[in-house]
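ping. complex inputs:
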Amino acid sequence: MYIRIIERLMPFQMYSKELLKGTLKPIILKLLSEKESMYGYEIVQAVKELSAGKIVIKEGSLYPLLHSLTKDGTLEAEAVMIGKRIRKYYRLSQKGKTVTTESLSELQNFIKTIEQIIYPKEGDYAFKN
Amino acid sequence: MHLRTDELDQIQLYVDQNGLTIPEVRDDVVDHLCCIVEERIGEGDDFDTAFVAARELISQNDIQQIQEDTIYFLTIKKQLIMIKGIFITAYISAALLVFGIFFTTLGYVLELPDIVGFSMLLGSAAFFCFGFLPAWFLQKYRNSVDGIKA
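pong. complex structure:
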């Protein structure tokens, strides 16, 4: 039961929730910027494959976010009939392209800052004292 | 390969029974479950075994969580605006009340026309009755409804 609760709290597997919190949005936007359009299951599989199985997006985190990004105009959704069911393909809107650039730039900047703190090089503030 | 109509019906029933009512998200989750089932069938499982595996990946709790999280994402901005509105109208109403009492008292002591103080008291009452109270009651009502649904 406790494992179930922990899984519920974690949007990803393998990495801790704290470590990966906030990266789901840039990951999805980056994927969509490289492909014309993708559907939910395809996004989950792509992330799993690209991360060699280390990051598995939980459906419970993916769909609320996709829906929210669609609602605020970052993504556009197109419904396509697959047999007798509806499949929604998501793609970046014009606004979404700008949001993606900003989001990736922010993430890159954040990663650099964390690197500077965790692995300071000679000449950085940590060695000045 | 595509699932048969009766198999698709079973998947849709599973999603519906677990309370996923937002149509766009429902379609996504149904399609996601179908993809898992189809993949498992492609690997040699029969439908029933594949559907059990899909339900383990997306459990009843997961479906309910998707519904709750989607509503949260969609309403959080509105809720924040509403809370900000409650605080702003409460502040304006209280400030007008204090200044209204001050100017009314000042006007009474100095025997000046008390139109300024009266206007402020009237403004305070207006902000309280038509700004603060409706927003506050609406927020309380929504919280109560959410509490009942949860």
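The mean pLDDT of chain B is 87.
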